[in-house]
Amino acid sequence: MMKEAELIPTQPVSVRERFGIDSNLTVMAFEHAGEYVPKVDPNYCFDPEVTLAILAGFTSNRRTLIQGTHGTGKSSHIEQIAARLNWPCLRINLDGHLSRLDFIGKDSIVIKDGMQVTEFKEGILPQSIQQPIALVLDEYDAGRPDVMFVIQQLLEQDGKYTSLEQNRVITPHPSFRLFATCNTLGLGNFSGLYSGTQVLNHSQLDRWNIIATLNYLDPQHETKIVLSKLPELNNESGRQLVEKMIATAGLTRNGFRAGDLSTVMSPRTVLTWAENIQIFDDVATAFRLSFLNRCEDEEKELVSEYYFRCFGEDLETPTQNYSHSES
């Protein structure tokens, strides 16, 4: 039997102290971290507006959808807030392989008293909504239509789920929370970047209580994140390197918005580039292997020009080793 403190959040937490955001809000957290609580990343940098939106989802049981470009940390934002609230969290990727039966459950043959019998096994959804857990639906705009209409039940005001297979109505646990992340906010593969995404039913989108946008960070914030992930670069030359890398990424993002590029450097790509510099001990080599090689051939000249503008050297020129910490 679970203790009361494990079923509902009972510990008051200051948003200012716990999340470093200038707010007088106090939120409730669970007393202890259980098995499904994500690990805390002590260096994680929170976006204030998105953090407050997600906190509203946790504290006021608001269905919260986070939209934004790939690699900006939409899912990790939810996870890191859950980690600091000791809130169990389960991420499910709504790719094309997740079927309705996987989601709601199906009949399975089991052995009971030495006999084979058919028994209904609950899927991800009914199991989750009966628990004090935050269910995060990743790639929400890639979900199959039959799965999406199941989710629509949970977006109603009372959020109850009718299981026709079990002939019962399931009322969500008081500490069940529902979140989702998506790249396109219902537009489908409009930009050509997100193959496999669907045009979402806008009556369903209208049922989400809160929709927040998390896109590219300002350069100072992005630099701080890279340096927090790779402390060996947190010195004078390392900071200069990271600033040039983020400036290069900024040019690719401008080029993408202008229609000059078909791909773009996300914050995740910048971090991968920085990690690869540690492996290959060369900035240009790491750049080619992290980003340039995924570009179309006709775009590589422009991307090489972006690199030259920020680093003042050609991509073929051996670069200075930045991977060792300064004393």
From TrEMBL:
Residues 8-37 form the Cobaltochelatase subunit CobS N-terminal domain. It comes from the Bacteria. One of its GO terms (molecular function) is ATP hydrolysis activity. GO terms for biological process: ribosomal large subunit assembly. The keyword Nucleotide-binding applies. Residues 65-186 form the ATPase dynein-related AAA domain. It is an enzyme of class 6 (ligase). InterPro entries: ATPase_dyneun-rel_AAA (IPR011704), CobS_N_dom (IPR025865), P-loop_NTPase (IPR027417). One of its GO terms (cellular component) is preribosome, large subunit precursor. The keyword Transmembrane does not apply. PANTHER family: MIDASIN, MIDASIN-RELATED. This is Aerobic cobaltochelatase subunit cobS. It comes from Vibrio coralliirubri. The gene is cobS.
